[in-house]
Design a protein that fits this description.
The protein is α/β, with parallel strands linked by helices. The chain has a 5-stranded parallel β-sheet with strand order 2-1-3-4-5, with helices on both faces. A 5-stranded mixed beta barrel has the order 14-15-16-18-17. α13 links the parallel β12 and β13. The radius of gyration is 23 Å and the shape is globular.
Length: 466
């Protein structure tokens, strides 16, 4: 089990590299730029990357033009995400041409694929190193080696990842926080690249998670999201096999005015114990994101999702039992190989039956290295887009109707800050992640307030402070 964790010796080794780099650049005003693509887990990883860079002596900058080291934290969930990453990496070429001492590193999911590693190695000669998702703790070593003229580093073996504790994130917010509770995935859905680029499931020890949450609560953080590719399977690889329900029960004992979200859950592991813990924990937001992906059992089987629509609806009913006000959201993939019109209609039926507050809809994108990439009966792009539009039309009407039910209600929101379009308007979110706009002449960013809803539209609520 301890093979899942980085050894103390390795952590001390990286600490020495950090000290050596700090000594080399001290007083030189060196800056580091980190750009993040993809999911919340990547955002959490980037906060750790920024923290390590700051400890090395770099000042974090938002301007890539003034950076002495550039890190691209990539995503591989869709082809578009990889193309965007390559485009960003491509524009760094002229920085290196002007200053050969600039260091360019690529990490994240894209950099854990062998064909992309080879592409970066042979076609992007100005990239100094790639770093797998489970080896971020080695960043000081790779930067030190690059500074001292070492060979470029491209190591596919780093996708055998481990958990490194003790890296305090450089958080981008002082009231919202990501807390990773596990890494990797064992599900191997046929469309998904994640298990191949982030490795198998590894859970953090409960005491480490609780310590991090206690610290955040003590510092006044209001919104804490527990991250994992499948948080429902937390603890299966740990001694004593603690569960996500056990973790939530312990979090319930922590003092503080904060709410907990989960991202993301898999229906096959959504147990009655977990649902019970969600309802009993006063910190847990009355919101649950449960990816459906398809309303057709035949499609779900080809996706290797390992649940039926009947089982999925049982979970939804369990979540709604004694809690009709719960906000439900989901993910849907449109145009999976072999999806018939009848299959798609079944997805629409589930959406109408569940009545989600909102959905995240994705057009199927074949990922090289996954079983679905080579499946027969690929759906033509035109049909994919037609179904996407039909799906959005149905859901938008449902979202609009649900939002209209909030008119006249007073709800608690967490304020995110001023609107980009109007300095007198502030944006906030409910615990169900609904956007709420309101006018105010005082800045309540990072605080909970009560807002009475006066009007709504499909995607947001509008109100006034009570």
């Amino acid at each position: 089990m301890d093979n899942n964790f980085v050894s103390i010796n390795e952590i001390e080794k990286q600490s020495k590299f950090t000290s050596q780099i700090r000594a080399l650049i001290q007083g030189k005003g060196y800056r580091a730029f980190v750009i993040t693509l993809g999911c919340q887990q990547n955002e959490a990883d980037s906060e750790k990357i920024a923290s390590m860079l700051k400890k090395m002596g770099y000042e974090i900058t938002l301007d890539e033009r003034e950076a002495h080291i550039l890190i691209v934290n990539t995503c591989a969930i869709r082809e578009h995400a990889e193309k965007r990453a390559l485009s960003i990496i491509g524009r760094f070429k002229h920085y290196k041409a002007k200053n050969p001492d600039i260091i360019i590193g690529v990490c994240g999911c894209m950099s854990a694929q062998e064909h992309r590693i080879n592409q970066l190695k042979h076609s992007y000669h100005y990239v100094d190193f790639t770093l797998g998702t489970g080896a971020l703790h080695r960043l000081p070593e790779l930067i030190f080696n690059s500074m001292n003229g070492a060979k470029r580093h491209f190591d596919i073996d780093e996708i055998k990842p481990k958990i490194a504790e003790g890296i305090e994130p450089l958080r981008q917010s002082d009231y919202k926080a990501w807390v990773s509770i596990m890494y990797g995935c064992d599900n191997f859905c046929t469309y998904c690249i994640v298990p191949y680029v982030r490795g198998r499931e590894r859970s953090r020890k409960m005491e480490d998670i609780l310590s991090e949450i206690k610290d955040l609560a003590g510092r006044g953080y209001k919104d804490i999201t527990l991250l994992g590719q499948n948080v429902n399977s937390y603890g299966k690889d740990l001694k004593g096999t603690p569960t996500i329900a056990d973790l939530l029960d312990e979090i319930a004992k922590i003092d503080g005015d904060f709410m907990i979200h989960l991202m993301t859950s898999h229906p096959k592991d959504a147990s009655k114990q977990m649902i019970r813990a969600l309802k009993e924990n006063p910190h847990c937001a009355n919101h649950f994101h449960l990816p459906l992906q398809s309303g057709s059992d035949e499609v779900l089987n080809r996706m290797n999702r390992r649940y039926t629509t009947e089982r999925y609806l049982e979970i939804i009913n369990g979540l709604r039992e004694n809690s009709d006000d719960i906000t439900l959201t989901t993910d849907i993939i449109v145009g999976f190989p072999g999806e018939s019109e009848k299959d798609f209609e079944k997805t629409l039926d589930i959406i109408k039956k569940v009545r989600y507050d909102s959905i995240f809809t994705f057009i199927f994108s074949p990922r090289k290295g996954t079983p679905a990439y080579q499946m027969e009966d690929q759906i033509p792009e035109e049909i994919k887009h037609q179904r996407y539009e039909r799906l959005c039309e149905v859901q938008n009407e449902i979202s609009k109707e649900i939002n209209e039910g909030y008119i006249g209600r007073t709800i608690r929101v967490l304020v995110d800050g001023k609107s980009k379009n109007n300095e007198n308007v502030y944006t906030s979110r409910t615990e169900g992640n609904k956007i709420v706009h309101f006018e105010c002449d005082k800045d309540y960013t990072g605080k909970f307030i009560n807002v009475k809803i006066t009007r709504t539209d499909t995607f947001a609520l509008y109100g006034e402070i009570i």
